[in-house]
Amino acid sequence: MTDISPAAITDCVRTVLDRDLADDTDIFTAGVDSLAVLRCRALLKERTGVKVPGHVFFEGRTPARIADLIGGTHAGR
Amino acid sequence: MLVVEDSPLYSPEFFADDDPWAYLADLRAHHPVSVHRRDDGYQFYALTRYADIYAAYVDHKRLSSSYGTMVDGSYLPQKDSASGRMLIVTDQPAHTAIRKPIKTSGFSREMLARVGRTVRRNIHDALGKLSVGDRLDFSTVVAPELPKGVLEVLFGIGPGDAHRLLEATRTMIGYRDEVYAGTSPLDALVDAQLEVLEFIDDLIGHRLGSGRTDDMIGFLAQCVADGTMPRDVAVLNGLNVAVGGNETTPHTASLTVHTIDGERDQWRRVADGDVGCDVATQEFLRWTSTNSYVQRLAVEDFPVGDHVIPAGSFVTLWNMSANRDPDVFERPDEFLIDRSDNKQLAFGAGVHRCVGAPAATLEIQTFLEELAAWDKAFAVLAPPRRLRSNFMLGLTELQVEVVDAKEFGT
What is the dihedral of CA B101, B204, B231, B148, to 10 degrees? Predict the structure, then answer.
C-alpha cells in the first residue's frame, strides 16, 4: 500500500484549482481538466514520490475514490 | 431531407472494411445535406458537395469550432474544455491571436527550409538502409519518418524524443483501434494525452530556463516569459501542432505508396521527370484525403441550398467527398497524377485551414522526390490494414517488398 491519502489528493487539487473542495467532490465538475490533472500529478509526485497514471484521476473522479484506486493498484502488485 | 438512423458515418468499422467513398458519392448526388443519427441521441448534419463545404468553411462566424472538431470530441452542448485556448477549437478573434505566433514561429519560410532539409535527410537515410528483397511494414518503418523531421525542428528535440512523442500522439488519435490502444481505449487515450502534455510542458520549462528561442517551442516559451501567452495555452497548442502533424502525413505516405503500386505506369512519368512532384503531390493529397471530415456547431441558423440547418446543430464537412465532387474535378474517381488546376480541399479552407499545410505538403513532395530518385521501389505484398477510424483515413499495416526500380512498372 502507498501512503497517498484522500486528503493528500484533495490538497493538490485545492492548490491547482485555487478553490476549496471535499474528499467526495467530483474534481471534474469542480473544474479540473487534463492540464489540471497534469499539475496535480506533478504535485503528488513531488510530495509522495508516486507517479499516478492519468486515467486513475478520470476513473476515480473524487479524491476518496482516486486514493482507493491507487491503494488497490499498488496492493495488487 | 434524408435522415439516417444508426448511420454508418459513425462507424470506424465501416471506414476500415466497407466503401465510405461510394456511400458519400450517393449522398452527394442525391442528398447533399442529410442528417445522421446514432442510438445514443447524437446527431449531425453532413455536407458532401464541394461548394457547400467550401461555403461552410469560410462562414466561421455561423459555424463555430469551439464545440470540438470531431464527433465525440466534446459533449453537447458544452464547449470543448480547451476552447478559447487551443487553436483548432477556438473561434475568432482569439483564434488569430493564437494562430499568428504559431504560424510565424513554426511555419515561416526559414523554418520550412529547415524542416525540408531535416525531412529529406530522414527519408533519404531510411530509404538508404533498404536493400532489394527486404520485406517491411511501410506504415511503421518508413512513414513516421515524415513528421519526425518536423518535430525535430519545431520542438528542438532529437530523433529519439520525436519518436516517443509520435507513439503517444498515435495512441491519442487511434485510441479506438486496438493496434494502438490495446483493450482499454479510454485509459490509453487519457494516459497518452497526459504524456504528450507533460512532454511539451517539460520542453517549455527547459526553454524558460535556457532562453533559447530559435524554434517554435522556444518562441512559445518566450511568449510565456513575457506574459503574452499563459503557459497552459502554450502547452495546449504544442499538443495541437504535435497531433496535427504526426497523425496525418504518415497515413498520407502509406496510402501514397499503396496508390503508386497500383498506378505504376503513372508513377513512371514522375520517376522519369515528365510530371513534377509538386503536381503529383496535389493529386496524392486529393486522392488520399487523410482527414475525412471536420465538425462544426451552427451557432445561428445556417442555410444550405433549399435547407436551413437550425442553430444548435452539429454540422460535418466531408473533405473526402468534396475531393471527389464531379462539379469540380473531371473524372473525380480516377487517380490522375498530372491533374492540373487541382483545388483539393484536404486541408480545409478559410481561417481554420490547416496551419501546418505548408509543412505537410513539403513532407509529401520531399517524400515523392526521394522516391523518384531512389533506384528501388516498394511493391505491395498484401492488402493493407486500414485504420479503424471515421476521422483519419490511413493504414496501420502495409507490407511491402523492396524491388529494383527498373523491374517496378514493367
Answer: 60
